[in-house]
Amino acid sequence: MLRLSIHKLRAADYATLANILCGVGAVYLSFSDKLTWAAVLVLAGVALDKLDGFVAKKLSQQSEFGAELDSLADIVTFGVATSVLLFVYLQGTSWAIVPLLLPVFGALRLARFNVARHQEEGFFTGVPITITGLVFPILVLCGVPNMAVVVGVIVMSLLMVSNLKIKKFL
To answer: Cα(138)–Cα(146) distance, rounded to whole angstroms?
Structure first.
């Protein structure tokens, strides 16, 4: 007999799952040419990413499962969804492929973070991928020129995998 087993979810995990839904919704909306709503969903994902961490700490519900789920949500919303949003924003230009850097460099950054998570108390090494989910939707909403977005993607991708030390503020 087939038996399903789902990890017992905690309060913070629901915020993380909502973050994933925002990312998937943003992908659908981007491909439907509804970039404003796609950008809003990515920004909602940023808020949910902060909420899940806050709830986990406040309720003392931090877990390895939650940390891994959070990284998966980050790559979906801030790597893939943000990349698709920018791909559609840049569509018709020869630069439309550049946003593919975000999920690749984001995955590298998250893998490094997950391996060194317990060694990096109080700071991040490299820019957190969440920042892409904050910066790029705002650029899209403001109608920033294509070349500024392209340069931003390249710079942000490199900063994510840099050795830059950034103090955690929350």
So the answer is: 13
pLDDT in tens, 120-169: 677 788 999 999 999 999 999 999 999 999 999 999 999 999 998 888 76
Tell me how far apart the alpha carbons of residues 20 and 28 are, in angstroms, rounded to a whole number. Answer: 13
Q: What is the pLDDT of residues 54-94, one digit of tens each?
A: 999 999 988 999 999 999 999 999 999 999 999 999 999 99
Q: Exposure of 88 by Cβ count < 10 A (0-12 exposed, 13-18 middle, 19+ buried)?
A: buried
Residues with Cβ < 8 Å from 127, sequence gap 6 or more?
A: 109, 156, 159, 160, 162, 164, 166
Write phi, then psi, for 4 (nearest 5 degrees).
Answer: -90, 140
Q: What is the pTM of this model?
A: 0.92
Positive or negative, the Cα torsion across 15, 21, 23, 26? negative
Using alpha carbons, select from 94, 70, 69, 73 the residue that is nearest to residue 26: 73
